[in-house]
Amino acid sequence: MFEKSLYDLIRGLRNHKGNEKEYIQNCLKECRSEIRSPDMDLKATALLKLIYLEMNGHDMSWASFHVLEVMSSQKYHQKRVGYLGAVQSFRPDTDVLMMATNLLKKDLASSHPTTITLPIAALPHLVTPSLALSLLGDLLPRLTHSHASIKKKTVVTLYRLALVYPEALRAAWPKIKERLMDKDEDPSVTAAIVNVVCELGWRRPQDFLPLAPRLFELLVDGGNNWMAIKLIKLFATLTPLEPRLVRKLLPPLTNLIKTTPAMSLLYECINGIIQGGILGDGEDFSAREEVASLCVSKLRGMVSVNSDPNLKYVALLAFNRIVTTHPMLVAEQEDVILECIDSEDISIRIKALDLVQGMVSSDNLLSIVGRLMRQLKASSSALAQQQNGVEDLDDSSDDGSGKRAKSQEQAAPLPDEYTIDVIGRILGMCSQDNYANVIDFDWYIDVLTQLVRIAPPPRTRALDSDSLPSPKPAIDISEKIGNELRNVAVKVKAVRPAAVRAAELIISRLNTETVSSRPVVAGALKPLAFVVGEYAFQLSSPDDTLRNMLSLVPRADYPEVLATCLQSIPKLFAHVAGDDQALWTPERKSSLSLLMARVIHVLEPLAQHPYLEVQERAVEFIELLKLTAEAASGQAPSTNEIQQDAPLLLTQAIPSLFAGWELNSVAPGAQYNVPIPSGLDLDEPIHSNLGGLLSQADSLMLPTQGDDEFEVYYNQRPAPTSISSGPAIERLVDAPEEVGNSYQQAGEESYLDADIVARRKAERRERNKDDPFYIPDMSSSRTGTSTPIHNILQKENGPDLDIDAIPVMSLDLEKLSISGPSRQQQHHPRQPRQKIVIEADETLGVSGGNSGVSTPGARPGYDSENNSDSFNLSKAAKKPKQKSLLQFNSSVLGGLSLTDEQQPDDGFAHERQQKEEAEMAQAMREVQRLRLEMQRANERIQVAQGVPVEGVAVVKKKKKKAVKADEGEGQVVKKKKKKVDKEVPSIAISIGCEIKGACLWLLMSSRDQGVCIYSQAAHL
Amino acid sequence: MINAFLVFNGQGQPRLTKFYTQLETSIQQRLISEIFTLVSNRAPGSCNFLPLPPLLAASGTSSSSSSATEQNDVPSLVTYRHYATLYFIVISTSTESPLALIDLIQVYVEALDRLFENVCELDLIFNFETLHATLGEMIIGGVVIETNMERIVAGVRAQGAVAKRPVNEGSRGGGGAGLGAMAAAGFQGMGGNFVWHGR
């Protein structure tokens, strides 16, 4: 049969469009058998195919041994495939790697430069500390190889070795330095060394100060822009340590800035000057001033509107670096940076946002948040539109028009991650320093209300649904928004009524807008439930809210949310029912009985909830309500003759449960300042058999929701998601009305939903009703000319007279006068700041400081469980400690000093390594000797038995460990490994696993040996 | 340092993957598809830098509290260029110069063009070994070692002859994946919006 080449595979892939999966599975199967073949060509081809498939996501970790086999091939083109396979497929857990040591050593010592390159290039991908230790000695001589390309690759490989085995650098650094100092060195080697030094430099800049003169020389007359960029980066880390460098560097850098045609170099010069602290104050003031203005003006030019987007992006990157050290310089560029927030390029937006976050003040908060809100609004409406569009596309199959519509659309929907990020930043900016920057809390509440609608739903939780009792789902963005609203309601008494009403509205909206069979996933429900419960007396319609809550509770998804909602229901109930002034009429009695029955009905299923908190609260309230219901039914209603009071349980007892003190916000960590009572022993177990009880609780059956879900799934039709009707053309031409004024001061209409705006306007009208300086907006039909003068004239002259037709000099009243609310809004920033008291968090003791933020860092054990109100804190507490994907870990280098090259340690390491190598070599010789002995014995047997001399064949069999059981020889081969181990136990113990490597090396290099054995056999 | 160098086409099919740290195949694929989603949604005329894909952002630079030096180890920059049917991606740490990386991709593509003479996607599909070899002449272990075109091309040629694409492939129409001559037209600039005068 014909084996497939890589060409055939790729061609086949292209010809099997549609059923590629099947085709690939077949190919993999073929490769599996081909790679086991003794034919090296076939093996290598199969490996190449596997590498190709691996690129497309098909695991080939199973083939790692075959990779080694191909790596050990004698032919360069096969070897190359083997090495490529190792680079692409070996992972940290690939265990065959230790067998490769000797192969790598051998190839590093090869006489062909191309062969030497293979292990050098592969090592950075494979290296482990032990591999680094054993190969260092072979790699070091390659630094002086005659080929420049090998030298420069070796330098880099040594650096990567040092990342896992820092001692390598101690041995290699003197040689690398020698190369760097050598003025006759090939420029590309020098450039590679500079790149490596740049990587090393930021870890231990002090070690590289002595190199400064040479590096400076390279910078001035290197003539290589790539290298110059790296040198400037390196100098930027050196200058803070050696201020004298600054004076030296300034002239060449200024010169470069003024002359270089390469934008990348120009940018790095500016960046380097700023980052290296060269802009900082110093003696030579005028020169620095000049440089500073030069740099900043160049950067400003990069950010400005019409610039190349790449320059915009990198300039923002530079600003982001400067902002920590020179905030003033960046603040001066506020105008151009703000423009970048509205860039259509998300990368630029995000970088601009990073910057803006640090620049917020009470003056610009409104406009910044306005910009962001407008983006979010546009995106969420675009998203809704697109969803409709997708449904539409399915039937119409008119692909082209759909695409066109998408491309025409001004605001493509933003990715969820970005939306969440932006919302988080908005909240962060507004809540900064305990709301220091928020002037208008009514505005803030409206923004929050809008944000709840925009917030993307949390990711589907299908995966963790089985771990239902898990206490804390990651705080989703919707909950953060709700927390903000709650914080405002608690902390800012002046706007509490407004906040409570906002919460009320959101809850009613949640109830009506989500499909009744679906669970409510909005995390905002939790804090909002607290607000409506705690401040029930400020609700505009407590009855409706109670009803909404009751219908939301069974659908609440997270147990934590559920627990909070449960708590708010009796609060609401107490407010609705506990009026002790009202008469105990028959109507009241019956309506309350009904209400109680309803509440009990809702709570009852929750009494068996797996989450203890929910269960406990549910049980408590059910019992309480049952008692109350009994009392209520026992109390006869008042008639015309006899006045009866409502049952005291209803009017006194239940409300008193919740009416004690006002709840204020408590600083995170305040709990820790509570002194422990003297009699309390926290280590004493609560119950002697607590563990048993808990495990019992764990093993309890979860209530099966199966029935319900079954029912829902099969018997209830899912509510149809809104299918837009109407001609498609309406969706095509959706002019972005607000775009025109978006560069001006924030118009709130552009980012708040219509109903919020309407409510806002109504409120404002109400507030300004009696204000003589405020000219109300008379009627919507007569905008523009609705000034009092106009009205008076019109009234005086009657309707016939067209006053506008009289040719007088046109007094453009529209421009002069105030024409309605939208105009008034623009004066917001100039309004005197409202006197609003924002309460600080309460705390105890002194350790928290006056702001009440006792640092979580000072209390390592503290988990931010109860202080979800502090969004910033929880963000900091969740700081990921784990290593990032793709990250290089160079931290080991931080502890390595290069300056004391004569440390005793150094010599010792090298000595030890040499010793180990000697041991290894000795062991190898021993193994080889034994092996040859056995081979000879073996051959003697063969010859004695008259078997044709087939040394090569024997070797091959041994290699595959496949034993033919025809004669005694096979068994000898099979036992070989064991026998070696047995005969040289001392070596095996002393050098541990290396013996295995040695044996395998023997197996691998058996090809040459086979020939040698053959000749020996011939002699015999 | 450079963390990864990727090439994939307009459908997100990888043509070259090179990760300078070892990474599970499945995670590699996830990363590629995340980057592809980002890159394919770019508006024309956007800059050549991508926001971090979620996979990298989750564990990476989003935690601004870690020290500045630690940041230098974490991939923080995703640079891309778009030539004809192919996207070239470089993931790197902050120690690389962003504008220089744009040039680096250009050098890589020009080198390929020199090797294949009027390179197109098909050449790269069928000769992905040469792709690796060329990259190996430019970047070793995440560090740039060569940016000079002549030396790169010479280095690759020293390893053996560079095969042309199978002769019949072009005439057969090749199965539909759009091939465009990347060389001349592609080099004039990304999307024709601006010309990059690097280096």
Walk me through the structure:
The complex is a heterodimer of chains A (1020) and B (199). Chain A is extended. Chain A is an all-alpha fold and 1020 residues long. Chain A has 47 helices and no strands. With 199 residues, chain B is an alpha+beta fold. In chain B, helix 4 (98-116) crosses helix 7 (149-158) and helix 6 packs across helix 7 (149-158).
Can you tag this structure with a few keywords?
heterodimer, A: 1020 residues, mainly alpha, 47 helices, extended, disordered C terminus, B: 199 residues, alpha+beta, 5-stranded antiparallel β-sheet, two-stranded antiparallel sheet, 17% strand, globular, coiled coil (chain A)
Task: Describe the secondary-structure layout.
The complex is a heterodimer of chains A (1020) and B (199).
Chain A: H1 6-15, H2 20-34, H3 40-55, H4 64-71, H5 76-89, H6 101-108, H7 113-126, H8 129-139, H9 148-164, H10 167-181, H11 187-201, H12 212-221, H13 225-238, H14 244-259, H15 263-275, H16 285-303, H17 309-325, H18 327-331, H19 334-341, H20 346-357, H21 365-396, H22 399-408, H23 416-435, H24 441-454, H25 477-491, H26 496-513, H27 525-534, H28 542-552, H29 559-577, H30 586-603, H31 612-634, H32 648-658, H33 690-699, H34 706-715, H35 728-732, H36 754-768, H37 788-797, H38 813-816, H39 821-825, H40 871-877, H41 891-894, H42 904-945, H43 951-960, H44 968-983, H45 985-991, H46 994-1004, H47 1006-1019
Chain B: E1 2-9, E2 14-19, H1 25-40, E3 49-50, H2 54-59, H3 68-71, E4 77-83, E5 86-92, H4 98-116, H5 121-126, H6 128-138, E6 139-140, E7 143-144, H7 149-158, H8 167-171, H9 182-187
Antiparallel strand pairs in B: 1-2, 1-5, 3-4, 4-5, 6-7
Helix pairs in contact in B: 4-7, 6-7
